[in-house]
Amino acid sequence: MHVLGIDAGGTKTVCLLADEQGTVLARAQGSGANLPSLGELEVEKTLHHLMEEAIGQTTIVPQAICIGIAGVDREEDAAIIRAIMRRIGYRARLVVTNDALIALTAGVGDAPGVVVMAGTGSIAYGRNARNEAARAGGWGYVLGDEGSGYWMGRHALRAVVRAADGRGGSTALTRHVLAHFGVDQPQDLVREVYHRALRPSAIAALAAAVQRAHDEGDVMATAILEQGAGELMACAASVVAQLGMAHDAFPFVLAGGVVHAVPVLVSSLTERLPTVAPGSSSHVLTQEPAHGAVSMALAEARGGARLPRYKTA
């Protein structure tokens, strides 16, 4: 028996081919596959290419596929992904869920827990002992995604242009942001941001520049990171409250590219999270979220993955 586990995020997509023991036999990686921001055709191209690459020249036919995809958390969105898979031609059993659930599964298995994700976007998602789920955030870069890489990058850009206008104080962010884009002056950012029609993932890459400015003691960068941590904390607290987990012992899983690129964010969250659940612990997800998708695909192949259901009021 073989399965495919896919993590389709805003910045990158990872596809793992695994056997019935969960041993990864092949890995393929490509660009992001966020359905709301990229559209159906681009997502289809990315998924098709990576699945073909992972299977390669073998005759393996996967029995089940789990796709955890950013921006997909409604039945209408899942129906689009199922239609894509039918067009691609795979007849395997299919699980379509959001990327937060596969990250949580990679971090805690089927146990209760809360994942706080900060990548191109951001979301907090949890599951309690009754297999009830709740979420906060994950609204996309226009409506929300506070504390995400895109959010940090946008605030960094605004700090730079405000400083250039004299509407804000000078900041080390100017040097780091200009170096990131390879330009000499803030006015050049207009061409980089607008004329090149940057995707959200490109703005999100500036999170590392915010970390570097913070390391130099920059007040503006530190304020951005502190506010970002506060926004992620608010999402985590909302999920804990919705699921009635404030007095439970469970892990917070910190996941996403920004978690690895901005270590001060990890320190801040690790310090603050026990205030909303004193019995909790925190750890950074060290393995790829796609491993959670592999686990869920194996469960589906063996009779059906047990997906949590969103708690209703």
Runs in which pLDDT lies below 50 for 5 or more consecutive residues are none
- CATH third-tier fold name of the domain at 2-106 and 288-310: Nucleotidyltransferase, domain 5
Radius of gyration: 20 Å
Number of helices: 13
Number of strands: 11
Compute the average pLDDT.
90
Task: Report the helical percentage.
Answer: 40-55%
Which features would summarize this protein structure in a list?
globular; 46% helix; Nucleotidyltransferase, domain 5; single chain; alpha/beta; 13 helices; 313 residues
Description:
The chain is α/β, with parallel strands linked by helices. It is 46% helix and 20% strand. The radius of gyration is 20 Å and the shape is globular. The N and C termini lie far apart (40 Å).
